[in-house]
Amino acid sequence: DQQVKQNSPSLSVQEGRISILNCDYTNSMFDYFLWYKKYPAEGPTFLISISSIKDKNEDGRFTVFLNKSAKHLSLHIVPSQPGDSAVYFCAASFMDSNYQLIWGAGTKLIIKP
Amino acid sequence: ETGVTQTPRHLVMGMTNKKSLKCEQHLGHNAMYWYKQSAKKPLELMFVYNFKEQTENNSVPSRFSPECPNSSHLFLHLHTLQPEDSALYLCASGTGRDEKLFFGSGTQLSVL
Q1: DSSP designation for B51
Q2: Are A70 and A59 in contact (CB under 8 A)?
Q3: Is the CB of residue B104 less than 8 Å away from at least one CB of chain A?
């Protein structure tokens, strides 16, 4: 049973518009969430994170929103740029997990010119 | 050289072969990880080493054998693999005090 789900395998967005990537989780014990970005033939790279005590974290064009009651988080990218085309992974952890991550299956984002 | 380096980038092996994957990190981290990524599936944690000691083995078959001689180097020894073991194998390192991991580019493994 997947504890972290990314239900959209792919998403296509026009350059300059907002990209919204979604992630749902089932374990209410998760207290830290991360987004990683992966280009082809490269390993994932850390993008942005959020603690469960917050509902929003912003870093430049990237904002992560957390809705604990819905067990849902989203990553907003605005404005979307061609270099944002990649696979985005959502991951979660909880305090007693020894910092180990539970991963979603990823969403492939395609930015159209 | 900086970051996490994995070799080889690609590997094709038969089911009776023995091969090893190598990972090296130049970030001064204490924790190193092996992950398996199959197509369109979540990353699966295989092994975790913290200060050279194995702290996690997520029910990985014995045909995968990790080795961590020091905090900078990590190996994954492979023998008598199955075709379903074909996947991208990713090495990562971290401080062991938070969830931010730094990944290598991975080894794309094909078992024939």
Answers
A1: T
A2: no
A3: yes
CB A10 within 8 A of CB A110: yes
Structure confidence by residue, pLDDT tens digits, A53-63: 999 999 999 99
Closest of B13, B18, B51, B14 to residue B32, by C-alpha: B51
| Contact between residue A104 and residue A18 where contact means Cβ atoms under 8 Å apart | no
Do A68 and A54 touch, CB atoms closer than 8 A? no
- Residue in chain A lying closest to B108 (CA): A41
With beta carbons less than 8 A apart as the criterion, state whether A48 and A61 touch. no
Residues of A within 8 A of B100 (CB-CB) are 34, 46, 49
Token pair listed for A32: 């830290």
C-alpha span between A70 and B16 (Å, rounded): 49
pLDDT tens profile B11-31:
999 888 899 999 999 999 999
Chain B residues touching A2 at Cβ < 8 A? 42
8 Å CB contact of B42 and A44: no
